[in-house]
Structures are given as structure tokens and as C-alpha cells.
TrEMBL record, chains A, B:
GO terms for molecular function: DNA binding; DNA-binding transcription factor activity. Keywords: DNA-binding, Transcription, Transcription regulation. PANTHER family: GNTR FAMILY REGULATORY PROTEIN (PTHR43537:SF44), TRANSCRIPTIONAL REGULATOR, GNTR FAMILY (PTHR43537). CDD domains: WHTH_GntR. Pfam families: FCD, GntR. This is FadR family transcriptional regulator. Signal peptide: none annotated. Residues 13-81 form the HTH gntR-type domain. The lineage of its organism: Bacteria, Pseudomonadati, Pseudomonadota, Alphaproteobacteria, Hyphomicrobiales. It comes from the Bacteria. InterPro entries: GntR_C, TF_FadR/GntR_C, Tscrpt_reg_HTH_GntR, WH-like_DNA-bd_sf, WH_DNA-bd_sf.
DNA sequence: TGAAACATATTGTATGACAAATAGCGATAA
DNA sequence: TTATCGCTATTTGTCATACAATATGTTTCA
């Protein structure tokens, strides 16, 4: 029906990026299963009508993200998904293409529920003045958003991402990165609810606890915030996200 | 003094991997700071005496891991560390080279404390029979290790890693990967303590809770386990890991 | 003053050749 | 028959060179 089902790789982008996208989606979708070997480079090249240079750079990207391994004569094989960098923005994007929304939103929520209270508590201890100003301004942007849904969502995402960065623990940062793209959809869903007054209060509680350097209070406030966010999404989508 | 200070890149490995390692360490160490642009490819090539092909494949890997961005004429720039894939095994390895041990162990512990109880609880709900068998056999290997430190450490690492995989939530898996390399050092430290009887009991508690599908019990047992593990490491190293 | 055309540096792509590694086969010997 | 060694062929890895595409800065012109 649709000749161009998904404009995932606009022609403007570099060739090796488009190819990596194409292969990445195919792998994530399961066209090539774990342990399987891809066709040899030469064959892949003529299949797509590109040079080996571009193809190898595309493969090199996928190898770096843990999707593939290669060795001479053995070929290029798909690794077990346990080795993939699932928090990588590209891989996440490919997953979103092929996984149903509810499933991946639910899984991300499970991770958030584990990490965000801890991140808030760490931020309360480790945040610099600059971090506090950033959180303050993210929060202010939420307040100022008014009825503008788009602005609200951006500010909301920025606020949560800033919490992760304020931990000054780089192992938390990849999770914070999810607030740039992977969680936008969830926030857009939640933004349609008429719960903004309550959301502002709850975000304010987290902000205050961090600014006043009270880790346990920050932890508690984040737990409350996420709990209610869950309820909102559940309510709006009509599914139970936590069986 | 020492001509080969660190055997990070044995000559056996592929050239582009050695180069990526070298550049990766240099970037992580701060030789090239965030926002800075690297020398042009041509120059990098003649600096190291290699072809542009190999150099570009090395750069492509670093770009895929979020360390670099490149565009024509603008050159190749170092990205803000917030965009790096800090859970990636390679990046972790490079960090270990240049960061003091206590700092990165402490930060990893902070992440574990947040995620591992949640992972155990999820595993109690989502684990398949195969997952349960795996955990069982990891645990048995710990018991069977006897006085063999190396076996104990391997089994211990495997047990914790298996918990993350048993969540069937792929966003937890990159954290579980840390138990393959990044946390070995910590486990080796803890293994020197004479607390094995207690450790076996505590690991057994987590295992039983997961097998009997009791999430809140698994959560609690994991909290206890990590709490004591922290004490052990603190005791042995003589530092306070949590200020 | 401003905008548009042009020169230039740098990354991106193509091509063709050769090197290195390794799985699989075959030959050889015990 | 069985095990070991070595050969061959396939596939990835590296090299050299040329040209294309893109963004920057400068120069020219209205």
C-alpha cells in the first residue's frame, strides 16, 4: 500500500547512516536472529548497490553498539540481545519502530521507578549551584508553559533529565538520556491529563528537596511523583501498565 | 621510563581496534576535551602511520558510542560526556584506565543499590524456568567454590548478572553487563573477606524469593545483600564508600 | 550595507588491490 | 580407523587513490 512506510532515513543523511538504520531495524526486528551470520559484505554491497567502504562503516557502527561481531572467514554474526546497548538512542529508536508502545513504555517505567528516586537523592547531595539553577529553570519553564502542551512536555523532560545529570554519577547518565527521545511519547500521553496543578506541586517538592540538600526527602518526593505519573498514564491509556 | 606502560592493545588485535582504544583512552582522559575538534583525519593518519580506512573505522566506532560527532569541513569534535555510552564495556574499560578505583567503584555501587533490588523483584515475577535454573546453578557454583577465590568470584558475578537478565526487561541488561568486567575488581576485593557463610545465606535468600515468585521478598533480600556487600568492601579497603 | 557567488578545507563515497585470519577439507601417518 | 598436520578457499581487514558533498569564510557585486 504505502511505498515509503517509514521515513526513518531521509535522503539528506549520510549513506552509511541510512544503511546502519536499515540493518539496525532489520536486526532488532528479528529478520536476522541472534547467532545468525549476515550475508558477506560483498553480497550486502551489491544488494543495496553501494560501495564496501560505506557498508563497512555502517557495520562498524552496529558492531560498536554490540549488535554484531565479525571475524575473517567466520563472517558477521548477530550477537545475543543481552549484549546490545539497549540504552543507546539509535537502538532505542529502532526498537520503537518494531515493538508495541505499551510494552516498551512499561519497561522504561520499571527502570525509572528503580533509578529516579535514587538519582534524586544523589542529586540532593552532589548537585552544584549550576545544576540547581538548571533544575530551577526547568521547573519554571513547566510553570510558565500554561496551556502549551509542547512546551510543558519539553520542560518536563528536561527537568527529569537534569536530575540524572545532577547526580554527577556518569553511570546514571545513559538513563537520563532516555528523556531526550525515548520517553517523550510517555510524557505526551501524560500531558493530556488535567493534573497539572498537582504535577507542579510534586515536581516542586522534588526540586525543593534537592536544592535544600535533603536526600531522603528527595527520594520520597520522587517516589510519589513517579507513582502518580504511572496512575495518570494508566488512566489515560486504559491499560494496566503493571500487571 | 616504561616504553609500554599499558598492554591495552595487544598487537594481535585488529588495527582499527587498537587505534580506537588509543583515541578512546585519550578522550576519556581529557587529552581532547568536550567541544574540541580532533586533528583532521589526514593528519591523524600520518601521526599514527596508518591508512585513512583504518582510521575512519576507528572513528566510526567512537562516534557510535557517542564520544564524537563529525561533519564535513567542521571536523570531528568531542561530545559532552553526558552523551557517552558510559555503560558500554569499552568506554568502561577506558575509564578504569584513567579514573581512580575508589571513585568508580563507589559510583557503580550507587547504581547497583538503585537497580538491583528492583531487578530482583522483577525477576521474581518474570523469570522463566530456564532463568531459575541458571540462577540455581550460579548459586550452586558459589557453594561449590570452596576456598577457590577465582571460582567464587566468577560464580558471584554470574549470579548477579543472571538476576538482571531474568527481569526480561532489556533496559536493565546493560547494567547487568557491568558484572562481566566492570565489577570484577569489586567482587575480588569482597571475596577476600571471611564472610562466605553469611554471603551464601543471603544469596540463597534472594534465590529462594525469586524461585518462589515473591517480588517484595526478593527486593528486601537484595537490599540486605547489597548493604552487607557495601560494608565488606568498606571494611577491607578502609575507606568509606558512602560519604 | 547586505546578499550572493566563489574558493577551500574536511569529511563522505567509490574502486581496486592485497594482506591476514580461519573454517573446512584432504592428505598423511600412527 | 583415527588423529594430526597442512593446504585451500572464503571472508574480513588494510592500503592507496581519486572524486563527491558539505560547510566555512571571503570576496565580490548590487
Amino acid at each position: 500500500m504505502d511505498a515509503t512506510p517509514r521515513p526513518l532515513a531521509p535522503a539528506s543523511l549520510k549513506l552509511h547512516i541510512r544503511v546502519a538504520d536499515q540493518l539496525g531495524v532489520a536486526i532488532v526486528r528479528g529478520d536476522y536472529k541472534a547467532g545468525e551470520t549476515l550475508p558477506p559484505e560483498s553480497q550486502l554491497c551489491e544488494m543495496l548497490g553501494i560501495s564496501r567502504t560505506a557498508m563497512r562503516e555502517a557495520l562498524r557502527s552496529l558492531i560498536a553498539k554490540g549488535l554484531l561481531v565479525s571475524s575473517p572467514k567466520r563472517g558477521t554474526r548477530v550477537r545475543d540481545p543481552r549484549h546490545w546497548s539497549h540504552l543507546d538512542p539509535d537502538i532505542l529508536r529502532w526498537r520503537v519502530e518494531v515493538t508495541d508502545t505499551d510494552t516498551y513504555l512499561k519497561k522504561m517505567f520499571e527502570l525509572r521507578r528503580a533509578t529516579e528516586p535514587a538519582a534524586a537523592a544523589l542529586a540532593a547531595v552532589a548537585a552544584t549551584d549550576e545544576d540547581r539553577l538548571q533544575l530551577q529553570s526547568d521547573f519554571q519553564a513547566m510553570v510558565d508553559a500554561g496551556a502549551d502542551n509542547a512546551r510543558w512536555v519539553e520542560a518536563d523532560l528536561a527537568f527529569h533529565r537534569s536530575i540524572y545529570f545532577a547526580t554527577h554519577n556518569e553511570f546514571f547518565w545513559p538513563i537520563g538520556q532516555l528523556f531526550s527521545f525515548g520517553l517523550r511519547q510517555m510524557f505526551e500521553i501524560a500531558a493530556r491529563g488535567d493534573h497539572r496543578p498537582r504535577a507542579i506541586i510534586e515536581h516542586g517538592d522534588v526540586l525543593r528537596a534537592i536544592i535544600e540538600r535533603k536526600p531522603s526527602m528527595a527520594h520520597a518526593a520522587a517516589v510519589t511523583l513517579i507513582g502518580n505519573a504511572t496512575s495518570d498514564v494508566v488512566l489515560i491509556r486504559g491499560h494496566d501498565l503493571e500487571p
